[in-house]
């Protein structure tokens, strides 16, 4: 197969070529959008990351395309309907970092509960070891609310139990046997909001989860709760999150993802656009409030990013391409 590979790190090329010696591979720095002149009438497959938005115009650049293999679990960056109309299959990586993302969520939870970022900054800034203002709280005995009990959520549930937390979970699919085994309870979303001291989000992004955590949701939360989002930014309504921090509904948040995170570094262009998107502007400015907030930790979408997890992503993606080439497609997603 002839495959165009976008947005890989430098080491990936040698690794992938070693795994796929029989395929014709063309590597590109950056996303599909960052390479607008790349067109190929003979390309069989695109291998992309989440920074490549694929729609009808991108598909036109590769008219013989048969497969898009995304190196991610999520696939909301791909227009599945446009792909289906052209007969292009889409394959994703359904699981690669269940423990990886859950571990990062708990890193954020621990950093918030024990004020680790603030303590480190205090030592760096003052050169002293003053403890004032750095008192944290125990996780043991607190209630952890897991929104989304899939592969990642299950690992987060296990970790919460390991810390001696009471764990409640909301999920549209319930597994009574798993709940009994791990010692957690399924509850309604409203009950989870009302009971949880810490809420951790582990749902995919889709029309059903867009702004799942909104003003109404924050109004139902236990006052002084903490929110952790390692899922997707748009699962949380940014302006509502800012309001919840300002009015004390939330005591803090750990955010590995933000709405409009791609525009954060280019607000000047966003503000100067001839027909600005008011909602995007408000979101970008709200995101800056979150970045500057002393009880909010913001990280640049790195929950998945360990050497082991990235290697699993690439290996699974290679497997998806090889399976498709052999006539036995694997991990295909549908509109």
What would your notes on this structure say?
By secondary structure, the chain is of the alpha/beta class. It folds into two domains: 2-96 and 307-333, Rossmann fold (3-Layer(aba) Sandwich); 98-298, 3-Layer(aba) Sandwich (Rossmann fold), CATH 3.40.50. The chain contains 13 helices and 13 strands. The protein has helices at residues 10-19, 56-60, 80-86, 98-113, 116-126, 151-162, 176-182, 189-195, 215-220, 238-246, 267-272, 278-292, 307-325, and strands at residues 2-6, 24-28, 45-48, 67-70, 89-91, 143-147, 166-170, 185-186, 198-201, 225-229, 250-255, 296-298, 332-333. A seven-stranded parallel beta sheet has the order 8-7-6-9-10-11-12, sandwiched between helices. A six-stranded mixed beta sheet has the order 2-1-3-4-5-13, with helices on both faces. The longest helix is centred in the C-terminal third of the chain and has 19 residues, at 307-325. It is globular, with a radius of gyration of 22 Å.
Give the ordered list of helices and strands: EHEEHEHEHHEHEHEHEHEHEHHEHE
Helix and strand composition category: alpha/beta
- Could you say which overall geometry the principal axes of the C-alpha atoms support? globular
Assembly level: single chain
Features:
Rossmann fold; 2 domains; alpha/beta; 13 helices; 335 residues; six-stranded mixed beta sheet; single chain
Short précis:
The protein is of the alpha/beta class.
Task: Show the helix and strand layout.
Layout lengths: L1 E5 L3 H10 L4 E5 L16 E4 L7 H5 L6 E4 L9 H7 L2 E3 L6 H16 L2 H11 L16 E5 L3 H12 L3 E5 L5 H7 L2 E2 L2 H7 L2 E4 L13 H6 L4 E5 L8 H9 L3 E6 L11 H6 L5 H15 L3 E3 L8 H19 L6 E2 L2
Parallel strand pairs: 1-2, 1-3, 3-4, 4-5, 6-7, 6-9, 7-8, 9-10, 10-11, 11-12
Antiparallel strand pairs: 5-13
Helix pairs in contact: 4-6
């Amino acid at each position: 197969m002839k495959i165009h590979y976008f947005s890989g790190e430098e080491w990936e090329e040698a690794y992938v070529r070693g795994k796929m010696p029989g395929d014709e591979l063309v590597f590109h720095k950056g996303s599909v959008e960052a390479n607008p002149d790349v067109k190929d009438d003979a390309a069989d497959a695109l291998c992309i990351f989440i920074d490549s938005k694929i729609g009808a115009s991108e598909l036109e650049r590769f008219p013989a395309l048969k497969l898009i293999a995304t190196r991610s679990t999520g696939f909301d960056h791909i227009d599945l309907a446009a792909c289906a109309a052209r007969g292009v299959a889409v394959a994703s990586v359904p699981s690669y970092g269940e423990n990886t993302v859950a571990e990062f969520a708990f890193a954020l939870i621990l950093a918030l509960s024990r004020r680790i970022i603030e303590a480190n900054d205090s030592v760096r800034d003052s050169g002293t070891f003053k403890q004032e203002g750095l008192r944290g709280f125990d996780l043991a005995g607190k209630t952890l609310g897991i929104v989304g009990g899939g592969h990642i959520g299950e690992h987060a549930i296990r970790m919460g139990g390991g810390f001696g937390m009471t764990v409640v979970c909301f999920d549209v699919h319930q597994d009574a046997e798993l709940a009994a085994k791990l010692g957690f309870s399924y509850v309604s979303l409203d009950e989870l909001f009302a009971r949880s001291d810490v809420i951790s989000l582990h749902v995919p992004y889709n029309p059903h989860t867009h702004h799942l955590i909104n003003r109404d949701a924050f109004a139902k939360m236990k006052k002084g709760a903490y929110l952790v989002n390692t899922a997707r930014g748009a699962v949380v309504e940014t302006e509502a999150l800012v309001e919840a921090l300002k009015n004390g509904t939330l005591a803090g948040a750990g955010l590995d993802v933000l709405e409009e995170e791609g525009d954060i570094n280019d607000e000047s262009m966003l503000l100067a656009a001839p027909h600005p998107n008011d909602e995007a502007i408000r979101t970008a400015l709200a995101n800056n409030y979150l970045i500057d907030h002393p009880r909010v930790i913001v990280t640049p979408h790195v929950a998945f990013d360990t050497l082991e997890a990235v290697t699993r992503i690439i290996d699974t993606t290679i497997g998806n391409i090889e399976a498709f080439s052999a006539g036995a497609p694997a991990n295909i997603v549908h509109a």
